[in-house]
Known about the structure:
The chain is mainly α. Helix content is 49%, strand content 4%. Strand 1 and strand 2 (14-18) form a beta hairpin.
Amino acid sequence: MHQRATVFNKTSQPTTLSLAVTTSESVRQRQKIAQLEEKLQLLESGQATKQREINYYMSKGRAIRRIVTLYDTIKDLINENNRRCDDDRDNEVTPEHDRLQIEYIAINNTLPWFHQKIADMEHDDSMHILKKLRQGADNPPIDHKDKCLQGFVNDACGWMLCPTKLDWNDPMARAGIRDHLEGYIMTEMSWPAFLYQGYTANTNNLEEGPFKSRLLVQAFKAIFTSPSSTKEVSSDGDSANIIENNRCTKKDTSGKKHVNNLVALGGW
């Protein structure tokens, strides 16, 4: 900021003089750039810290399906513990309730910080942690070099490979598919969910609307147009009419001639 002083000339008229030390334009610009870079570093460090926190909770969540519970949600375990903390002694205790409580104790033995941290946090913050733990539990990373952790073994892959006539969210269906039980065996007539728009199908007519899922449309565009064109598929069903979309892209809307006309390709 420029500082100014007021003096009086010979005519007793006040004159304002600047007390600023002259600094060149290039120096001022360099100082501004340095300040902006410092702010950017602070923002990036904050994002990096947040990402490390997310990765931490997701990595801890991966142990839940192996050590604590195979199917129950973390919220179910918390709800059961809260129910037991109530003063109402008329609450009925069933083997199912006992199992959930044992699992709650197991998760606290696995993650010693879990109980106190969730209790001390605000509701939104605790829900954020539970969400990341659940994501880590239900969606373990896929090792592209190890097929043993792919397919129906992985919940994310299994959900998309699951036949449309079955519900992957049903624990019995998941166990039946993985154990190859009768009624859950995959055949050439098992239409997987990833073929359909929205990953859901009309079970009464499986030939209605196949091959329109976002995943397949993106794969088509990546192969036959360009990888960057996959970004045009914003949600399931968008750009499903591939033939029509490609026909539109071939139209010359700019008024310019095609490259082969510009270089007189036909005259070669």
